[in-house]
Amino acid sequence: MSKSYKEITSSLSKNLGQLRSAIPDVAKCFSTMAMAATQDAVLSKKTKELIALAIGVSARCDGCIGFHIKTLIELGATREEIAETMGMCMYMGGGPVFMYAADALAAFDELSKKD
Predict the structure, then answer these.
(1) Which residues contact 106 (CB under 8 A, 6 or more apart)?
(2) In this predicted model, what pLDDT tens digit does every residue of 15-31 receive, in sequence order?
(3) Domain count within the chain
(4) How far is CA 13 from CA 18, 30, 43, 66, in A?
(5) Rounded distance, CA 25 to CA 47, Å?
(6) CA dist., res. 71 & res. 51, Å (int)
(7) From CA 47, how far away is CA 16, in angstroms rounded?
(8) What is the CATH number of the domain that holds 67?
(9) Which domain holds residue 52?
């Protein structure tokens, strides 16, 4: 089974836009919380995004993997940083997480390619 994280994030972006229109106050609050949680502080934005990716992988959320990988690429994360983060996920989550950790590394490879 092959997944396209470009397709997953594109499709979800459209769906999320529709949901934002349907519940604008809730969506705005979520966006405000996301901005507050991810800003540089004691932990860097990149570290926080690696944590978010780890949670997304552990929750087996394809959309989370795609969006957090995109952000990590923008923040200059390396394939090695992604792989090491996935090692921690596997340690804590076992076999099922191993499968999604492999997907996360594939998402990094796919989304890092320059078109």
Answers:
(1) 3, 5
(2) 999 999 999 999 999 99
(3) 1
(4) 9, 15, 27, 11
(5) 29
(6) 12
(7) 25
(8) 1.20.1290.10
(9) 5-112
